[in-house]
Amino acid sequence: MTSPSGRSAAEPLLCAGALIVDDDGRIFVQRRSAQRRLFPDTWDIVGGHVEAGESVEDALHREVREETGWILSHVLATVGEHTWKGDDGLYRLETDFLCRVDGDLSRPRLEPGKHTDFAWITEAELDLLDENRPDDDTIRRIVADGFAMLRVFGF
Length: 155
Hints:
By secondary structure, the protein is an alpha+beta fold. It has 2 helices and 7 strands; from the N terminus they run ββββαβββα. The longest helix has 15 residues, at 138-152. The chain is globular and about 40 Å long.
């Protein structure tokens, strides 16, 4: 069976994630609003679903712009692919990228209604990502992988 998007019901939804890094080697995270269906009131990275006709890289650029107002300037590396199941029962295949952006990094334009707060975290601050996620360490593992990749680049 195929959906209107042309995707088989058995195929995972494709997602792109941005591990945005600053000059100090910190990674940007944002808090999802309490009204979000998936992972309400939790910390997350920038990213989202690939739309019909988009590549993963196109979605990455769009999501960075929509969720922060910044412009993706460089993809430093692919951090990895992660398959996960949302509490909506759908599987997603997420490709995460270590990125640099252009814009005022102290003033992201958070997407109204979707995100309520932001932080630039160091590897020592990974515990923040466990808040309100008692049984799911996916985001923590993704961000930890991003920090491991940063060490390869000498941060």
